[in-house]
Each structure stands twice: as C-alpha cells, then as structure tokens.
TrEMBL record:
Name of the protein in question: Peptidyl-prolyl cis-trans isomerase
Catalysed reactions, as listed in the record: [protein]-peptidylproline (omega=180) = [protein]-peptidylproline (omega=0)
Family, similarity comment: Belongs to the FKBP-type PPIase family.
Residues covered by the PPIase FKBP-type domain: 6-80
Lineage: Bacteria, Pseudomonadati, Pseudomonadota, Gammaproteobacteria, Cellvibrionales
C-alpha cells in the first residue's frame, strides 16, 4: 500500500530549524496520524509523503512561505490584559489566548504590564526554514466516517 488520498498515515517525525536544532519530536510517544489529502498537515509535507510506503523515511525542508509563513511585525501589538486568557503570572514567553472578533487566537507575550501586554500573534515558527524528517510507521485505508469528517479518529488522531 502506498500513500494516496484517503490513506491514514501513522508517522514519527523530528522537526529541526535551519541550524539543525531539534524543535520537536514525536519519537517519545505514540506515532502521529493524519488523513492524506484532507489538508491536515503542511502541504509541502503532504506532497513529499505522496506515494511513500510503510518503512519509508523522508526529509523535506520548507522555507517560511511553505511552512508557517514569514514573520510579520504588524502581528505584534499592545492589548488590554482583560482580553487575554491565561493561567499563572503574565510574563514574557507565556502562550496566551486572545479574545478577538473572530474567536480566540493563540499569542505569545512579549512584554507584560499591569493593565496591558505586548503580544505576538505570529505562529511561533513563523519566519523559519524548517526540516521535517518523517518515518512512515503504518498505513491503512480511512473509514467512511473519517473521510466524511476529514480527519483520523482514535489514537494519534482526533478524539470525539
């Protein structure tokens, strides 16, 4: 079986930056899972996995434009603390949720004050060239329910 539309793919990955620094890895836990062809992962990674089989290893490097986008300075702004959702003490580096007219959005605190905070709503990996090293662990056909919902159900996937 090879990876094509509506294949459930179980995989382990390492994610490194342009300097080779490990940013994330799934290898200490259960494999991740996604439904191929349903836009559940970055398009460049999904394209690189097309036609691969169990046991294959790939490495794909994505520039910022194909990963999480360029870093935009206009995404750093001051907001009243009352619009932030967080636990503990508000401090630089803390990930918070911001209430917006489009719903809650994640942000990183750049500077914290008593009544306001400077927050960065760029993706934490925006502006970075990223390399994904992926080991394809297991493949299976998606169930009709998974195809209808456009994501994997069960371990490694979405839990309903």
């Amino acid at each position: 079986m090879s990876i094509c539309k509506n294949t459930v793919v179980y995989f382990h990955y390492d994610l490194t930056d342009a300097q080779g620094t490990l940013l994330e890895s799934s290898r200490d836990g259960e494999p991740s899972a996604y439904l191929h062809g349903s836009a559940n992962i970055l398009p460049g990674v999904e394209t690189a996995l097309e036609d691969k089989t169990e046991g294959d290893t790939i490495s794909v490097t994505l520039p910022p434009e194909q990963a999480y986008g360029p870093r935009r300075e206009d995404q750093v702004r001051r907001v009243p603390v009352k619009h932030l959702i967080y636990q503990g003490k508000l401090r630089p580096g803390l990930t918070v949720q911001v209430n917006t007219s489009e719903g809650r959005k994640p942000a990183t605190v750049v500077k914290a004050g008593k009544f306001g905070a400077d927050i960065d709503t760029n993706h934490p990996m925006a502006g970075q060239t990223l390399t994904f090293t992926i080991d394809v662990m297991r493949l299976r056909d998606a169930s009709p329910e998974e195809i209808a919902h456009r994501h994997v159900h069960g371990p490694g996937g979405h839990q309903h």
